[in-house]
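Hi all, posting the design record for the shared folder.

TITLE: backbone redesign
STEP: 1 of 1
STRUCTURE INPUT:
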């Protein structure tokens, strides 16, 4: 494949985003792909060079963090994209926005990545006192860009969950930035006179290196500890002064990969005090080398995912807690050595090769989606698409009919059916779209799902035979029901269009059992469609089980009553490949449905 990476500041390898981009592009080249880079102030083979853009005040602040911005150039971008199979946008700035527009005009599929958390921007600009309003504003502003691209690479589950909470309408692929195979277990080179501790990362406010220096300053082992702070950044001078004042022995340095590996191999402990971390590749690299970590248990730090037990966690910003945990590990050599091996083994699932393979899967999926979009708008696909994506007039009429019929059915239910709906709050709490699945045991069970979700409108799916039934067929059509596919072409367009609806906040209803069997008390084998849609849309499955309850009335006659039990939303596992995520989600849903008995 010809893959174009669009990234600002590519030559700067002092931060995780750029290091990841560099390692991914080099690994993809080795796998036989043609890689083109669009960035500023960097030259070389297959690199399309842009000038650096100056933004008043913003550029001044960003440069202190080692960040610069590229100035978009239409001619350069068109040249870079010519003949490309896919474009991957890494930084959500002006050049990426122009690249997205050009890619759409040139009919090239696009993926993107979320590497720039708003929290880091706020810390870097020293605006923490405005964190609450600024954070929401920045996430919403970024959403304007990301909503135009379906597939998003998230380095951690924390990132995907954060985007989901802000209702980003994307399919999330949680792919680790990956650790190179060069970072592997080394037996520590023991220094009998000292304890060696390392922390790796930019010298920036959110990285909180000062917490480490203060904890060592209070430690009984202060005079025996040598702390290595590996990195560069704007807070270095402040850290140097703090170390001098507290009489802590600190070595500052910026290391090449080989030198860094050698330095890590000399350490007894690794400390990661950051408040904000989208993954924490430096932390992962130290763990891969077998260093036991001490990680701040910060709510915005994804590095917490690497911890194997509570002994490697300390309260964020808590000097005393860090000191106690640090001293525990330094004084328990045998336990530390045991956990070094455990931590090194735990890093294997984050290998760079595995991450690059997952990235390949993501871009191939994006290419297939792009082809499905083209099919849906082709002469052959338009009639099929119209059955799913209703025209403005039809959409207005079906919506009006829906909001007339459902309240009437609600009244009918209260007066005659006496159906009981439990746990409606599970549906009300969902932000965005969802796929609702229920067992198929009654002619009115779809009505029950509609009542459960009301006032939110549900998009129902039904087999084509239902559209041909007298009276019922007219009602099904009037409610805006979508016919399930019967051919490969219909199948491609069906999932492509429904995914858009789900990602944009719609509830889609499926009967995964397929056919109706009146009064069936067992859960039958589920088909895969509903779970495929949930995975491809990164929305939860909401299981609904309808139980037919028999009871005797005052005249001793048996009456049936429907009990509708709504389960908790079940989210796809974004860390798995789509195929494995589908099977896992299907299995979890089947288990949940079996538990939703009366």
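Okay, here is what came back for every position:
SEQUENCE:
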């Amino acid at each position: 494949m010809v893959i174009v990476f669009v990234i600002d500041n590519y030559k700067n390898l002092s931060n995780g985003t750029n290091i990841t981009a560099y390692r991914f592009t080099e690994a993809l080249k080795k796998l036989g792909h043609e890689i083109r880079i669009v960035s500023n102030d960097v030259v070389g083979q297959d690199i399309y060079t842009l000038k650096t853009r100056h933004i008043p005040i913003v550029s001044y602040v960003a440069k202190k963090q080692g960040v610069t911005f590229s100035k978009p150039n239409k001619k350069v971008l068109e040249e870079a994209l010519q003949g490309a199979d896919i474009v991957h946008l890494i930084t959500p700035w002006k050049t990426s926005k122009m690249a997205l527009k050009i890619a759409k005009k040139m009919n090239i599929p696009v993926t993107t990545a979320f590497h720039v958390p708003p929290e880091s921007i706020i810390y870097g600009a020293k605006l923490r006192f405005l964190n609450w309003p600024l954070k929401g504003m920045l996430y919403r502003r970024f959403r304007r860009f990301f909503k135009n691209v379906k597939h998003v690479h998230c380095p951690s589950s924390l990132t995907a969950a954060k985007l989901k909470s802000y209702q980003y309408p994307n399919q999330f692929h949680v792919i680790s930035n990956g650790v190179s195979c060069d970072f592997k277990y080394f037996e520590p080179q023991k220094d009998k006179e000292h304890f060696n501790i390392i922390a790796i990362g930019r010298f920036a406010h959110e990285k909180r290196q000062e917490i480490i220096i203060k904890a060592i300053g209070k430690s009984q082992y202060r005079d025996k500890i040598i702390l290595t702070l590996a990195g560069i950044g704007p807070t270095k001078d402040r850290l140097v002064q703090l170390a001098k004042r507290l009489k802590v022995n600190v070595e500052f340095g910026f290391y090449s990969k080989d030198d860094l590996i050698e330095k890590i191999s000399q350490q007894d402990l690794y400390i990661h005090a950051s408040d904000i971390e989208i993954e924490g590749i430096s932390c992962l690299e130290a763990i891969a080398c077998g260093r036991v970590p001490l990680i701040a248990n910060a709510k915005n730090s994804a590095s917490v995912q690497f911890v194997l037990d509570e002994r490697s966690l300390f309260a964020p910003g808590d000097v005393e807690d860090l000191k106690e945990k640090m001293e525990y590990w330094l004084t328990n050599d045998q336990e530390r050595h045991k956990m070094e091996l455990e931590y090194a083994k735990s890093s294997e699932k984050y290998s760079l090769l595995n991450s690059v393979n997952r990235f390949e899967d993501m871009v191939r999926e994006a290419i297939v989606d792009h082809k499905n979009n083209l099919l849906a708008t082709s002469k052959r696909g338009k009639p099929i698409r119209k059955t799913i994506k209703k025209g403005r007039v039809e959409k207005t009429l079906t919506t009006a009919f829906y909001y007339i019929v459902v309240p009437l059915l609600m009244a009918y239910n209260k007066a005659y059916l006496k159906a009981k709906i439990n746990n409606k709050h599970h549906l009300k709490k969902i932000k965005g779209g969802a796929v609702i699945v229920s067992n198929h045991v009654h002619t009115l069970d779809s009505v029950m799902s509609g009542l459960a979700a009301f006032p939110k409108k549900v998009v129902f799916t039904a087999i084509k035979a239902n559209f041909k039934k007298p009276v019922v067929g007219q009602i099904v059509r009037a409610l805006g029901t979508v016919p399930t596919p019967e051919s490969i072409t219909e199948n491609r367009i069906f999932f492509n269009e429904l995914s858009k609806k789900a990602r944009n906040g719609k509830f889609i209803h499926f009967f995964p059992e397929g056919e109706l069997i009146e009064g069936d008390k067992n859960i039958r084998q589920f088909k895969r469609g509903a779970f495929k849609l949930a995975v491809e849309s990164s929305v939860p499955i909401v299981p609904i089980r309808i139980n037919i309850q028999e009871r005797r009335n005052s005249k001793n006659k048996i009456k049936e009553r429907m009990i509708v039990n709504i389960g908790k939303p079940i989210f796809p596992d974004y860390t798995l490949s789509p195929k494995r995520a589908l099977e896992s989600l299907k299995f979890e849903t089947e288990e949940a449905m079996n538990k939703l008995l009366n």
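COMMENT: The two ends are 53 Å apart (CA to CA).
Let me know if anyone wants the other runs.
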